[in-house]
Amino acid sequence: MASTTVGLRLDEPTQERLKKLGQARDRSPHYLMKQAVEQFLAREEDIAAEDRLLNERWEKFVLTGEVYTHNDAKTRMANMMKSRRA
User: Fold this and answer.
1) S-S: 72 plus which of 17, 21, 68, 77, CB 3.0-4.6 Å?
2) Residue 86 pLDDT more than 70?
3) Rounded (to 5) percent helix, strand, coil in the chain
């Protein structure tokens, strides 16, 4: 996979913290920044996916008015798990 270089401006205290952490973990500041960006993106993508799912569920509720009680949901999940084991 091709890589590109991206510039990131950090203030001196942040740069120093990054440098110290890198030394403590025997990692480069670049590695730490790359890990931080990847973790941030994964977390934000998960949040966006959850938001889409909630919106889809809300739209379905608005159209159908269909709801499940907590006990109904537990029963449905238990039945799904049983059918997957079989």
Assistant:
1) 68
2) no
3) 75, 0, 25
pLDDT confidence bin for 37, thresholds 50/70/90: very high
Cα angle 73, 76, 79 (rounded to 5 degrees) comes to 150
Q: And the tokens for 79?
A: 């039945």
50-76 pLDDT tens trace? 999 999 999 999 999 988 889 999 998
* Exposure letters 29-51 (e unless 16+ CB within 10 A, then b): beebeeeeeeeeeeeeeeeeeee
Structure tokens at 54: 């909630």
Phi, psi of 28 (to 5 degrees): -80, 155
